[in-house]
Amino acid sequence: MKKPLSVVTALLLGGALLSACGSGSGTAGGGSGDTIKLGANLELSGQVSAYGSSARDGMQLAVDEINQTGGVLGKQLQLIALDNQSDTTQSTTIAQKLIEQKVVAILGPATTGNTMAELNVATDAKIPIVTPTGTAAKITVDESTGKVNDFAFRTCFIDPFQGTVGADFAIKDLKAKTAVLYVANDSDYAKGLADAFKKEFEKQGGKIIGSESYTSTDSDFRTTLTRIKGLNPDLLYVPNYYQDVGKIIKQARELGMNQPILGGDGYDSDTLVQIAGAQNTNHVFFTNHYSSDDPDPRIQDFVKKFQAKYNRKPDGFAALGYDTVRLVADAIKRAGSADPVKIKDALAQTKSFDAITGTMSIDRYHNPVKAAVVIEMKDGKQVFRTKIQPTT
After folding, report:
1. What pTM did the predictor assign?
2. Is residue 387 part of a domain?
3. CA angle 201, 370, 269 (to 5 degrees)
4. Do 272 and 348 fall into the same domain?
5. Same domain, yes or no, for 271 and 299?
6. In Å, what is the CA distance from 105 to each residue of 59, 320, 340, 351, 389?
7. What whole-number distance in Å separates Cα of residue 371 and Cα of residue 118?
């Protein structure tokens, strides 16, 4: 009896080893079987669910298109999208779950804080992360050491560039000479934009005549806005996400503040209009990654395809989600493998990638070098105002 049992045991162990070798992401083609798994760690519920949901829809559209044309390396892409509930703790948990499912890259999250929450987990597992819309510089570069985070990338521009573009537009297009900053003191995103805006605005001769702060749990901004109104600035710079900004815009207009209000890509949601009221959004401007009204034929083709699938126009988060999948697929193709480390290396070598949100090359800090747009709100509708190319 002992000898047959030994043979059976050896066969079972051999089968288990073969199974284990075939279940990983792989080093010579990657994926499991005929599938390459891409993880999506996104805000599908919670405070900024509009961002994550749009990014997911853009990602799925790209996956569908790529699969319809044969996939990548002869394999089909599979998008595994999980909900981090707009919460940093959940973001860390979701990243671990995706890694356990043998994804070759993690796309997302949509916000800086949630992206930072997954960074260490993904880096330890040697899985590249590509955030479509996490704009803080520290995602890809460690603030304390200045060292590049090897496995972190993004398809969006960073806050310093966005803040600089905003200040340039305020000075040259809006002819603003004075401005007041109104900044969420518990938001790295808001503080990063405000710092960059202030530096460039003053560099070009503008004057910051006031700086106020609030927390994202606040709902009544009237006392501070009344104080700002007394300063009579040419411009109010409010860099934060749509929930807070919508309330601030509404209350500012109710107080008779009619000067331009300017911010960043966090404004890009229809919910902002619902909160603020359509008419109150007149003279509101924000920097963004793309505009669905941009006449570029490639953009208009993307808009038509997205509308056909989802029955709505794609916002910047959808466009960046779409570009993120295509960028990773391009890296897998160039690497000739779905091994995560090889994908990471190929991402770092990206040059002149033809994206919907602008032709991009990944710089030495793992950030894309590409254009930004400025969008103007008119009666609640987004209108393409101008496109600004990077200076470097």
Report:
1. 0.80
2. no
3. 75
4. no
5. no
6. 13, 16, 6, 19, 29
7. 27
What is the chain's Cα-based Rg?
23
- Residues 6 or more apart whose Cβ sits within 8 Å of residue 295: none
Angle, alpha carbons 63-66-67 (nearest 5°):
85
Tokens found for residue 36: 């390459």
Say which residue the tokens 């809006």 belong to.
174
**What is the domain-level CATH number for residue 214?**
3.40.50.2300
Reading the block at residue 337, the tokens are 């493998």
Question: For the residues 92-97, what does the mean pLDDT come to?
Answer: 98
pLDDT at res. 11? 39
Residue type, 101: Q
Measured in degrees and rounded to the nearest 5, phi and psi for residue 237 equal -100, 115
pLDDT at site 159: 86
**What's the whole-number average pLDDT of the chain?**
91
Within 13 A of 281's CA, how many CA atoms are on the CB side?
27
How far does CA 286 lie from the centroid of its chain?
A: 15
SS (H, E, C) 177-238: CEEEEEEECCCHHHHHHHHHHHHHHHHCCCEEEEEEEECCCCCCCHHHHHHHHHHCCCEEEC
Instruction: Note the pLDDT tens digit of each residue in 353-370.
Output: 999 999 999 999 999 999
Asked if residue 64 and residue 53 are part of one domain, the reply reads yes
Please state, in angstroms and rounded to a whole number, the distance separating the CA atoms of residues 5 and 342: 42
- How many CB atoms are closer than 10 A to CB 46? 14
- Domain interval for residue 360: 35-157+295-371
Beta carbons of 92 and 121 less than 8 angstroms apart: yes
